[in-house]
């Protein structure tokens, strides 16, 4: 069973719909006990980084951390991926999980923000999450903050500056783009995660 | 590189897609779910569904129409038309929309923008503005109620206020050009794009490939929306994108 963690931050219907389309056994949940018996965990996210504070208060953060330590595959999407870093300038008082070093920052004032639309990736061949995705493929983004390029970065994207479009390390995966909104290639990324 | 988006719009009433000229003279163009899927497969970057129903009876089918269309779509899907309250927005999100578009309700009650953005994020809130030239000059007035009522408000100033209140994008329709295929009003989109930090979607007047090239280059639009040219076979989205790519406009192609 795949647990899609609901922390009252926006609309999870499209993530659920994409996983249903792939015929996955999915539960959208805000119950740490359900997370505790999941075989895979997806943390979606739209909206504000401060919404992740709910994870702390509800016991979901602890449940997720325990599962990650057990080696359960974890996928953070958009703000869900940013939460895997130490912090974000969007909500400096709200700590991230700190799985990856660095802080998420705002796009420079010189360009339009949010970064909305389809942008291309420069992918790393080693990635299991992006298996079968050619470099220069397009994915749908919508965000005002982004994660730095780090050692775990497996796809980079350029908008005003270079940022992490996907990160991957052992059982940890994150994507800044929205795979559930990125057409056939996005569904392939979700399927790659589900098939791990 | 961030690409310019081509958005296919479905104007819907009573569960059917229709299209008019300058907001009137409606023609039937097909089933919303079928057309949404066809445009997505042809390479549309997003789908917008606008409910233009004049009566409550016809609007009652909206949630069902949205649900059917959303079922097969895995690209961004926006729904607008007749959303007057947070509850209306919630119903549309729950039926499968990723973004909502509000127009007259935002003019009447600007705090609605922030109310929806607080719950779903700014990226989910598009403020649609119907704008018309004043005396044919490059000054623009915002209209409410499907273009029926002049508001006396400057369209660009209203767009800036919408941005400040939490809109994630502006969908800017030229009433002068709507349905004519005579080209987008590049003065309008350029004025708005220069004044804002959020993306501007140009609408109204899309016709030949050159009209799209113009609105991206001269009009500085981030995305362009069209309806009738796609439904009635004047253009397929795929052909348009190939031609734009050939002209050096960055687009998502192949899809």
Task: Tell me about this structure.
- The complex is a heterodimer of chains A (196) and B (255).
- Chain A has helices at residues 13-21, 32-36, 53-57, 60-69, 79-82, 183-194, and strands at 2-5, 26-29, 40-43, 74-77, 87-88, 103-106, 115-120, 122-123, 138-143, 145-146, 153-159, 161-169, 172-175.
- With 196 residues, chain A is of the alpha/beta class.
- Chain A has one domain (2-194): Rossmann fold (3-Layer(aba) Sandwich), CATH 3.40.50.
- Chain A has an 8-stranded mixed β-sheet with strand order 2-1-3-4-13-12-11-8, sandwiched between helices. Chain A has a 3-stranded mixed β-sheet with strand order 5-6-10, with no helix packed on it.
- In chain A, strand 12 (161-169) and strand 13 (172-175) form a beta hairpin.
- The longest helix of chain A is centred in the C-terminal third of the chain and has 12 residues, at 183-194.
- In chain B, 36% of the residues lie in helices and 29% in strands.
- The radius of gyration of chain B is 16 Å and the shape is globular.
- Chain B starts with a strand and ends in a 9-residue tail after the last helix.
- At the A-B interface, helix 1, strand 7, strand 9 and helix 6 of A face loops of B.
């Amino acid at each position: 069973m795949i647990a899609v963690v609901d922390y009252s931050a926006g609309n999870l219907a499209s993530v659920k719909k994409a996983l249903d389309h792939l015929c996955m056994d999915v539960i959208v949940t805000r119950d740490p006990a359900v997370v505790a018996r999941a075989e895979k965990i997806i943390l979606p996210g739209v909206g504000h980084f401060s919404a992740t504070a709910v994870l702390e208060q509800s016991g979901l953060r602890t449940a997720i951390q325990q599962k990650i330590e057990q080696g359960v595959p974890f996928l953070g999407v958009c703000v869900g991926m940013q939460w895997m870093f130490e912090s974000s300038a969007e909500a400096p008082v709200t700590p991230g999980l700190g799985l990856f070093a660095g802080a998420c920052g705002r796009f420079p004032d010189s360009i339009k923000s949010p970064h909305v639309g389809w942008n291309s990736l420069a992918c790393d061949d080693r990635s299991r999450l992006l298996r079968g995705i050619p470099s220069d493929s397009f994915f749908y983004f919508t965000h005002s903050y982004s994660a730095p390029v780090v050692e775990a970065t497996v796809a980079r994207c350029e908008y005003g500056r270079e940022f992490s479009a996907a990160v991957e390390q052992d059982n940890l995966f994150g994507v800044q783009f929205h795979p559930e909104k990125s057409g056939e290639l996005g569904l392939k990324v979700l399927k790659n995660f589900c098939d791990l | 590189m961030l690409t310019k988006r081509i958005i296919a719009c479905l104007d819907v009433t009573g569960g059917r897609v229709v299209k008019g000229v300058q907001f009137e003279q409606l023609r039937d163009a097909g089933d919303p779910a079928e057309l949404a899927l066809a445009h997505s497969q042809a390479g549309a970057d997003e789908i917008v569904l606008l409910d233009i129903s004049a009566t409550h009876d016809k609007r009652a089918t909206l949630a069902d129409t949205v649900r059917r269309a959303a079922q097969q779509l895995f690209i961004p899907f926006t729904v607008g038309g007749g959303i007057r309250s947070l509850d209306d927005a919630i119903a549309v999100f729950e039926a499968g929309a990723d973004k909502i578009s509000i127009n007259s309700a935002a003019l009447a009650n600007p705090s609605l923008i922030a109310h929806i953005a607080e719950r779903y994020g700014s990226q989910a809130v598009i403020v649609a503005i119907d704008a018309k030239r004043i005396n044919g000059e490059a000054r623009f007035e915002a209209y409410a109620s499907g273009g029926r009522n002049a508001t006396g408000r400057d369209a660009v100033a209203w767009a800036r206020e919408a941005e400040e209140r939490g809109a994630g994008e502006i969908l800017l329709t030229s009433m002068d050009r709507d349905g004519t295929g005579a080209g987008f009003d590049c003065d309008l989109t350029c004025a708005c794009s220069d004044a804002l930090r959020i993306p501007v979607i140009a609408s109204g007047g899309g016709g030949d490939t050159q009209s799209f090239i113009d609105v991206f280059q001269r009009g500085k639009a981030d995305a362009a929306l069209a309806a009738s040219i796609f439904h009635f076979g004047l253009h397929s989205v795929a052909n348009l994108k190939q031609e734009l790519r050939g002209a050096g406009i960055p687009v998502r192609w192949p899809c």
